[in-house]
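Forum: Protein Structure Q&A
Topic: Joint prediction for protein chains with partners

I've read a bunch of threads here and the consensus seems to be that you should model interacting components together rather than docking separate models afterwards. I'd like to see that in practice. Below is the full input, 309 residues plus whatever partners are listed. Could one of the regulars post the assembled result?
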Amino acid sequence: MIKDIFHPGKAIFVEIAKQLRKGKLPEYLPKGILLYGPSGTGKNAMIEALVNESGCLIFSIGATELVTNIQGSGSSSTKEIFVRARRANPNRGVIILINELQSITPVTTDQSTPLAHTRSGQEYDNALTQLCIEYDQCSNNDNILIAVTCNEFFRINERIRSRFECIKFPCPDENGIYEILKNKSEYFGILLSYEEIERYVEKLNGLSGRDITHFVQNAKREISLGKTKEEALALAMQHQIRAARDARENSNRRFNQLRDEAIRGAVFGASGTITKALVVSVLAGIGFLGLVLSDNKDNGNKGTSPSHK
Ligand SMILES: Nc1ncnc2c1ncn2[C@@H]1O[C@H](COP(=O)(O)OP(=O)(O)OP(=O)(O)O)[C@@H](O)[C@H]1O
Ligand SMILES: [Mg+2]
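Posted by a regular:
Agreed with the consensus. Here's the joint model:
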């Protein structure tokens, strides 16, 4: 249910669900929404709630599934999903959901990536172009809502960003953590007092809705294994902190790896250029020396030849 998902700008989803339930999408609502934000912040949960509450149909696909190595696949599979959605049921609203759009967009924002010049790169671009064409062709009578999710908003190019209503899904603030924690603990049947929730709100700061859900889930498991509520919460918290720390270490390691590769690339790139420059200069030098010598030889010959005459 939409009410169970914490989001600061929930009103638009409530209205979309209401209208989709009536089987129409009035002009004051967007034809397309782009849900962006860190992993586990409720983007897909919100779309799922929209579908459950409105009873509309959903066609869901991962962005990378739109593309194969076959020429033209990017545009044909995108077109196909829209054809199927239009045919589906004219009396019910339809959501076309395209997940993880950032996985096919870098090439269109950065032509310098090697991917831009591969067949898949071109197909990614075709898929996005077709998505824009289909978006423009959708009329309000189609009752189709195009929903796109993505983690890295900076990878979304202008063509997409300017068409879609972009809605941010941030990690929850204190209010959000409170709501999610209260909701999930009720769902899992763990009774938490106001003070207990408050205590854990502080500890869970910076984590996503998914992390908070895992925290409550782990606590429930410990309780079912015989721990007291306090012990279970403490163990689940330790687990969560460890997981968050390990993830951070991993991403730091990856960052350092990328940085080292970049530095190595720059140094070797530069030394490669220097070596090339040296080789060219040496060759040019040898060539020049050769010319001078042969010139001298010629001149010598020229100089001597008249006397021979
Ligand atoms: N804002 C939230 N309110 C309530 N529950 C949430 C929220 N965010 C996440 N959750 C919980 O975490 C689960 C995973 O969230 P979801 O799959 O929607 O994340 P996502 O934003 O789509 O992540 P990803 O970018 O990794 O696909 C949800 O099913 C829900 O139980
Ligand atoms: Mg998701």
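Residues 173-303 form one domain.
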